[in-house]
Amino acid sequence: MADSSSSITIANRTLPARAIERLRQIDREESLLAQELEDPAVIGDHKKARSVAVKRAAIAPAAEGYRRLTALVKEADDLRAVIAAKEDPEFVALARAELPEVEAKAGKVLDDVLARLVTAEDREIGSVMMELRAGTGGDEAALWCRDLLEMYQKYAAKKGWSCDLLDISTEASTGGVRSAVMNVRGEGVWSELAFEAGVHSVKRVPATEAQGRIHTSTASAAVLPEPEEVNIKIDWANDVEEHVTTSQGPGGQNVNKVATAVQLHHKPSGIVIRMQESKSQQQNRVQAKRLLLAKLYDLEQRKKHAERSAARRSQIGSGDRSEKIRTYRWKEGIVADERLPGEYQLRTIMAGDLAELMKDLVAQETRRRLEEM
Question: Could you tell me which CATH class the domain 125-373 is placed in?
Fold first, then answer.
């Protein structure tokens, strides 16, 4: 084993110093979170306990893998020391026989640790804001947006995530959805749903198509991480304009006589947030502020990312939101993701079973990040 302050070398492979430092940090953080979960004050606070548990679950595999790796590296170093000493021929023979097996185990653990390392930060984010908007295609685009909303709600239910619909604009005549905002919370939500940002294209015969012609319609998704602690400073008094109005339905008509809808305009960025789903003005205000914070956080993260490397390939959670990422072909019964070589069963995907698709996307992104280490 090399100097622990620089790198770890096992089976002719090296774990870089920066990776070791990050793993040590994760190891310490996991231990502290484990202690928190034994604190009566945390145990008695359901919301706090859930948050701590999600954070720990996100980094525990990397921390445990790092501990296994260091133990195996030490074992391999001890075996090499026995071989180098040449004091007892019998011990030397046993050490020579055991060393390849120990190194092989360490190599597998090293692969797993690296994969866990490059996804650990993503998995620590246990809450996202997801926005869906109908795109081109008129009424059919709104129906497609509704289908996507239901698909993600089904997937969230299968994953055991909580999914709260914060705002929705519907088409009364068709049942379609023009736009929707939902908050999804649970272990791994950002590491998976971040892949969904972009344009989703559907090719199918609309219900209103009399001649059976296939149309192409689109809906877009934006997925914003909502970390527990967002270091975004907002001068609410001077930078944000608030307007309270009555809620509006399709066509702009008022749907009630009480002013409960809240619109926030963040003047420095130009971002406008409108919330009207709740019948409570205060609840709409709270939800609007949460979404504004998430949008500003996402904006800052993308700026930092661009500054670090303008030429770097697009990364999960950033880049051009308008880029088409997936096509759903009704006639063939398949779904084709632009980032993956294979195809997926349409019926399975629309039923909310995105497990295989997500697994492939995560694996591809993990490989890309490992190549950049």
Answer: alpha beta
